[in-house]
Amino acid sequence: MQFPSFIARRIRHNEAGSFSATVSRIGIASIAIGIAVGIISFAVLLGFKQTIQQKIFLFGAHINVAAFSQGNTYEEGALPLKNPVSDILPAIPEIKRWQTVAHKSGILKTPDEIKGVVLKGVGKDYDWDTFKKSLVAGRLIGHTDSTSIKYGYSSEVLISQKIASLLRLKIGEDVIMYSLQNPPRPRKLTIMGIYDTQMEEFDNNLIIGDLALIQRLNGWGPDSVGTYEIYLNDFTKLDDVANHLRRTLPPGIYLQKVTSVFPQIFDWLILLDRNTAVFLTLILFVACFNMISILLVMIMERTPLIGLLKTLGSPNRQIRMVFFRVGLHMVRQGLVIGNVSGLLLCWLQYKFKLIELNPVNYYMDTVPIVFDWPIFVMVNIVTVLISGLILLIPTLIITKIQPIKALLFKK
Description:
Layout: H1 3-14, H2 19-59, E1 63-67, E2 79-80, H3 84-88, E3 95-109, E4 114-122, E5 135-138, H4 146-151, E6 156-160, H5 161-167, E7 174-179, E8 186-195, H6 200-203, E9 206-210, H7 211-218, E10 224-225, E11 227-232, H8 238-248, E12 253-257, H9 258-261, H10 263-301, H11 303-311, H12 316-352, H13 359-362, H14 373-391, H15 403-407
Helix pairs in contact: 1-12, 2-10, 2-12, 2-14, 10-14, 12-14
């Protein structure tokens, strides 16, 4: 066993019941709290971002490409399926997939209530995997039922829980929608499912139906759509792909990024990142300050030992390494306790949803948790590196201690 390790172990074993033992426990607790808070903070932050982004991407693709339209801002112009956009998209490797949709403004009318809505028409290429998580009742719409055979489109629609409550509609009931055009064209729609995203931007006015219905209402053929919804493999490449598309799109076609459609939400997410960084910096600063103070106390208590070691010929570097290893042992203990407690609290919230939220303010009803193991490992590595560098500071006082005065030092 190396000499610094041997002395450091003896110091740890002999400090039980002493004042330094008490401050050591405080140092271990500081590191443990810092690690636990870091893990919980990142798990909650990533949970917030992932949950909100998933809900936004239900109805707002990473990039929307549509033809310019005059008049109603909720509707698009006709865009042929075979067009420059369809030729450009397959050539961009960052694009994961795309789907075609269209929008139509209208009014839902029941015997007692009316409600302005926007009908989003989706085709057979629409990806329902993410949307299924928000479906609270009923089933998804079909494109091959008996009404499709008779009229050329499906009359089935999905509405939000908020619209269903306002109009007092239930699964299987019919409702009349009047499209906002001249003249208005009423259509009887059947409620087949109810969704709830807890985001007012969607739940207040968006219903989902068949793309063929909008094509019929607008007088389009089956080869015309309203918007290309584009999803990327890596959301961080959004600006690069959007700029590339803008340079290649022909006139008359415009592009919208999801960050431009919902700027207030993405600004809020950026603010969360900054707040978390500031909070963790303060926690780490307090933990490091405690470690410096604690190691100084231990050095002062062991001043006679330091004097004896210097008298026996130990160099300053070797003595500093003794107390550095004592400090690292406290850091290791704090890491173990902090990781166990932080992950346990995250698991309890993930499993049992103990902490609830107001959906009106947070777009979700419970605190979300995401277990991102690379981030958790990074938190531990950064803590060890910073703590190791900080522990070198108080050991500098050892170089100032004179052997004669140290041997005569009384605690």
